Automatic annotation (TrEMBL):
Keywords: Hydrolase, Metal-binding, Metalloprotease, Protease. One of its GO terms (biological process) is proteolysis. Residues 307-484 form the Microcystin LR degradation protein MlrC C-terminal domain. InterPro entries: MlrC (IPR009197), MlrC_C (IPR010799), MlrC_N (IPR015995). The lineage of its organism: Bacteria, Pseudomonadati, Pseudomonadota, Alphaproteobacteria, Hyphomicrobiales. This is Microcystinase C. The keyword Ribosomal protein does not apply. Involved in peptidolytic degradation of cyclic heptapeptide hepatotoxin microcystin (MC). Belongs to the peptidase M81 family.
Amino acid sequence: MSKRVALAGFLHETNTFAPSRATYAQFEQGGGYLPISRGREILDRCPGVNLGISGSLAHAQAAGWDIVPILWTGAIPSAHVTRDAYERITAEIVDGIAKAGPLDGICLDLHGAMVAEHLDDGEGELIARVRRVVGPHVPIAVSLDLHGNTTRRMVNEADLLVAFRTYPHVDMAKTGRRAAEGLGKLMARARPYAKAFRRLPFLTSIPWQCTSIEPARSLYAEVAALEQRDVASVSYWMGFPAADIEECGQTVLAYGETQAAADQAADHLYERILASEAAFAGRAYEPDEGVREAMRIAGSANRPVVIADTQDNPGAGGDSNTTGMLRALLKNGARKAALGMMVDPEAASAAHAAGEGAEITIALGGRSGIPGDAPLEAAFRVEKLSNGDLHATGPYYGGTHMNVGPSACLSIGGVKVVVASHKAQMADLAMYRFVGIEPTDMAILVNKSSVHFRADFEPIAEVVLVCTAPGPMPLDPADLPWTRLADGMRLSPKGPVFHRPMLREKREA
């Protein structure tokens, strides 16, 4: 008899230090994800896209399940999800599941690092509400981002949590499929697995979490290798190190036929990660230094030098509008350079009002109140206009159709700037091409991204550099003003130890 399974998703990665919150309107628009989708829209929009829900749906269809699609939505990372957005979306998912009738299983596509205005653990609360309506015996499987700040409540309320294994996240759909496959096994066995959950004592910088470099490359190979014999599933979350909550950080979770098998796998991986702590490191440049190095390399290169403007990464909560790297390009006389994307709706509107070929004098970007950043007041030429429609076919977005609102290519000196109206992380070559910039013809590309861009840009790049212009996502988590992190957490690999203010006062007394 066919299994009846509900599918739903609610994705947000929350940087509690970021300047802008996630409203319901942001979830409606999607910001690099699909727009909010309900019922049949999920079945129509998700196939062939690199998202967890897509992989889960593909497995469900192949397995012949009776699929009950509820709601799927995601918004680009930012500060807290507003209470209004969280409660409206969560209520629609929970009510939809409650009204769906008898179900054999639930498959959820979540992020794992959602913080709402009124809740530290957005996913844990959502899973708990779903659990209350379906009861203790209906298995719940969840696909999660590698950057999830996985909580004890999430582990307790769900039967299976499965994490991405790549950063850039080229395996989102594959992870959704693994979650659905695991749900199928849970429905067939009619009993839960034993669980072993471990929390690491240090945070890591996002650029050095990339799984195409060490130590993450070897660690994730080991994660997959541990799934054998009595070990059903192993996940490693590197965490999102910009959420000022107690359970922010790296975690390991193993499921097994026996508690001993789960414990052994989790303990082995925990010790391997701990032994690799010092290796989570890399070279980063100040803006002028990085641009000069890029110009030096580009002088004899046949491919573009790609710079990650990591501290204004919209995929980590930035508003994608700081001007530090643009100023450095202009100051150092960079030629054949392009920067993307600068999100400034007013600048895009001015460009559209003036028309292609016009010159406009505007104050571009710099509107997030970041210390050390400000709008760049200058004259720009409007090279090309776009309505913002683009098809991102690279490995990260995986075929996603998105709209970033009225957009333009503006030029100044030897630099071209992609200006858009809606946030989306610069992680696809199409995000230059839709405004007439051919990225392979450039000498230098500056991408407002930390790692995801590598999936589509490394094959065309001479080299990738990381730069630290002012932005809301510091390269080093130790630079953030933490107040609520777990006491004793190391703020970076082998770095300073955090102590909560009240506990510190007690120690000093």
